[in-house]
Specification:
heterodimer, A: Spore Coat Polysaccharide Biosynthesis Protein SpsA, Chain A, 3-stranded mixed beta sheet, about 30% helix, globular, B: Spore Coat Polysaccharide Biosynthesis Protein SpsA, Chain A, 4-stranded mixed beta sheet
């Protein structure tokens, strides 16, 4: 039997304020450092600097038309990743993430699933996030608490069905919100909410998540789920960032492992992270 | 292996920690049936005026008048700013006469035998991290992390340790933290520069956990129950406590709370001393 191909896929579409391609390059650099054999492909219509192109296994144009041409968050193209992934087994990640440890065993875990979504995320202190500040729609409408920032699929009939439904919900999100979201209705198309709606339609929460396993997961740095005393605008205003020459990262004296979803773009601009990773990459 | 309890009693001219230590040593003997030693700068006072026979060893240290001060409340309406001599706990490892030591604050009132199991446990270092305010109406977040953004809180009030290389390292690290306190206040984003053993022990635990949440320190048996110095210990008969705990939003008013068979950290030392004096009379 032939070995299945596997790799990470990210969707990167720059907008007026954020260079998502740059974030994706940094993610790829972090992956090279911690998971040197793991492939990563980027789906984008934006330019990638020539010196970073070979970070990626494949550079893939967004299939069909750009469905997010008029929106800021650009998530309307997310459902296409199933169709354009070059791998049999794919992990999809947000671009504003860093891979800080070897995740090869996660692949073994994920191979038990056709589709898998993280349901638990953690604070920078390593505690499971319990706050619902950003998840009112999930709590108040009994939606499955899924995070699409890190998810997995294997090319299969079920995964195709799942993503076909996701296309339908994303392209008609207002109509589906009317049916499924009675309280705290978001005013934008949320990929997490759309994913949760698909999960309800297919009644497949148990099939695509695991409430016992602590990993796969990620550290979610949105500020108002960090168990702080009051709400904050930015986490970077609250805790310091420490990075050593071996790219060991501490946030507020807490050593970070796993996957870090840093969420604030100036984290990579202000920290030495980018230059450290670049130096490492150029040295190799 | 020798085992026993260790107390530190350094009087500050107002609060009589030596008297508290004698009171606690008797309860330790009653409930845990282990000897108690005391590290003190008041040896003559203990020998001449208190029941010194309750101690296995009296370990003398020099008297100092430290600059550290803090406000001590006696209920919600009365307070005094007094000398706060808390910088000797780091020497407990070196000075303990025991292979297995239960280090206690003198205001932790033992009322059951739960700590007997510390000595049977395989864990060489045990402290409380989780705690419960018996008033149950106050914001207790200051006892979850050492500051809003910082690391998990561990109580230095009760520490079980065996003499092992790892624990020697732990106490040496705490000494280093104390010696460089202003640096750690800054790096760990503490809101006050006042040295606190709870914070120093918490930071050391965090560092030795690899700067993560971990199990370098095991939990002590039971749960750390406490009352703050805004409450008043009103009555104590054997293991039955009656407290007057502050009433939320009504300064100067209290609610009576009773406990039985529960060891409790009584932070209002004035009211504790009144109870001790009443018992002696």
């Amino acid at each position: 039997m032939m070995n299945k191909t596997k790799g990470i896929v990210v969707l990167a579409q720059n907008n007026e304020t954020t260079d998502y391609v740059q974030q994706a390059c940094l993610l790829a650099l972090s992956l090279k450092f911690t998971n040197s054999n793991c492939k990563i492909s980027i789906v984008t219509n934006d330019n990638i600097s020539a010196k970073y192109k070979n970070l990626f296994d494949e550079i893939i144009s967004i299939p069909w038309d750009d469905s997010a041409i008029d929106t800021e968050w650009k998530i309307e193209n997310r459902w296409k990743l199933y169709h354009c992934s070059p791998y049999d087994q794919t992990i999809v990640m947000d671009t504003d993430m860093l891979v800080l440890q070897d995740i090869s065993t996660w692949w073994t875990f994920l191979s038990n699933y056709e589709v898998f979504f993280t349901t638990k995320v953690h604070t920078y202190r390593g505690n499971e996030v319990t706050g619902d500040y950003y998840r009112k729609a999930f709590v108040n409408n009994n939606l499955p608490n899924l995070y699409s920032g890190f998810h997995y699929f294997e090319k299969s009939d079920f995964a195709l069905e799942f993503y076909t439904w996701l296309e339908l919900v994303v392209t008609n999100w207002q109509k589906f919100y009317e049916i499924f979201i009675k309280h705290d209705k978001p005013t934008w198309c949320s990929i997490d909410v759309c994913t949760a709606i698909v999960t309800l339609i297919l009644n497949c929460e148990d099939k695509i998540s695991n409430k016992i396993a602590k990993f796969p997961s990620f550290t979610h740095m949105k500020p108002n789920i960090q168990d702080w005393y009051s709400n904050k605008n930015k986490w970077k205003d609250c805790i310091d960032v420490y990075l050593d020459n071996n790219l060991q990262l501490k946030l507020g004296n807490h050593h970070q492992t796993g996957i870090l979803h840093y969420t604030e773009d100036d984290f990579i601009k202000l920290s030495m992270l980018k230059s450290y990773y670049k130096e490492l990459y150029n040295d190799n | 292996m020798t085992k026993g309890a260790l107390l530190i009693a350094r009087n500050n001219g107002e609060l009589d920690y030596a008297k508290q230590a004698v009171f606690l040593a008797k309860r330790i003997k009653q409930h845990l049936n282990i000897p108690t030693s005391v590290i003190t700068d008041s040896v003559d006072y203990i020998n001449d005026s208190l029941d010194h026979t309750v101690f296995d060893e009296i370990i003398p240290i020099g008297y100092t008048n430290d600059n550290n001060t803090r406000k001590y409340y006696d209920g919600t309406l009365a307070s005094k700013t007094l000398n706060f001599k808390n910088n000797y706990r780091i020497n407990a490892y070196d000075l303990s006469p025991y292979d297995e030591t239960l280090l206690l604050d003198t205001d932790y009132i033992i009322s059951n035998d739960l700590f007997k199991s510390c000595f049977d446990s395989l864990s060489d270092l045990q402290m409380f991290s989780k705690s419960q305010d018996i008033a149950n109406i106050r914001d207790s977040r200051e006892f979850i992390h050492i500051s809003e953004y910082s690391v998990d809180f561990y109580w230095a009030t009760v520490v079980f340790f065996r003499k092992t290389p790892n624990n020697e390292l732990f106490f040496n690290l705490i000494k280093h933290i104390q010696d460089n306190w202003s640096h750690y206040v800054s790096v760990y984003q503490l809101s006050s520069s006042l040295f606190r053993n709870d914070f120093a022990f918490s930071i050391a635990a965090h560092i030795l956990n690899g700067f993560m949440t971990g199990d370098y320190v095991s939990p002590l048996p039971g749960k750390h129950m406490y009352t703050t110095d805004k409450d008043i210990l009103w009555k104590l008969e054997d293991d039955n406590f009656t407290f007057l705990v502050e009433k939320k939003d009504y300064v100067g008013e209290y609610t009576a709370v009773k406990t039985q068979g529960q060891s409790i950290h009584v932070m209002n030392k004035f009211s504790l001393e009144r109870i001790i004096n009443d018992e002696q009379n």
